[in-house]
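Example 3.2
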Amino acid sequence: LYGTTTGDGALIYGTVFKVDRSGRYQLLHTFIGQPDGAFPNAVLVRDGIGNLYGTTQKGGISNSGTIFNVDASGELTVIYNFAGAPDGKWPYSALVRDAAGNFYGTTLLGGSFDSGTIFKLNTAGNLTTLYSFTGGEDGAFPSGTLLRDVGGSLYGTASNGGAYGYGTVFKLTP
């Protein structure tokens, strides 16, 4: 089993850990805030060769969060540092992976209107902002994990905005 802790922010900014079948705990990484990230909140995604991928809500170069990889030996590499605008700030949910190895996710804040984004990270580590929430009818502050259908559409929820101001359910087509 692999997981994360968010830490207390005073001494530890979160960890990545492993628990084997016998119940033995192994610490793989302790976050220090800058430059590696802080407060990993989401489920980790594992690829076919044992690499783990995840996000930190804060930390990184701009304190806007990171996307990271932990390889099979336990070494962490920051793949992407969020800047706030236009790419997003504070990725809070788990990443979703497609068959080509690209990752999709959301940021709680940032983007063109500081109301969150939907992004794609390709296998070369290049991030594309697919959508910036306006905070109006489309919603604001997406925080749940995206769902991806076989046609490549992404579905999710935003916790604010919409017709009544209480959030939205959205679909982003390819």
